[in-house]
Amino acid sequence: xxxxxxxxxxxxxKHGVASTPVGVLGLDVSEVFVEWVPREHVTGRVWRERLxxxxxxxxxxxxxxxxxxxxxxxVPVEPLLDGVxxxxxxxxxxxxxxxxx
Length: 101
Fold this sequence. Notes:
single chain, 4 strands, alpha+beta
């Protein structure tokens, strides 16, 4: 499995669609790493419930289906840089937060 990076979205009652970034998930063969958007704990609840206790193989198996759900989808993105998965995810979160301004 190739490395994957996903922007996790949560439901926005203001917009009536899942448009609020709640986190960034990085997935590799043996590792899952997530960075959460500050102050979006409630909006990210569905994603937290999905990911709690899930091993990388489970996440890899489920992510495509989860990504298509209307309430809490995900969008695959090209990583901004190569390297350690945690650094890649953090850089992507910084980009998400920067583009929200």
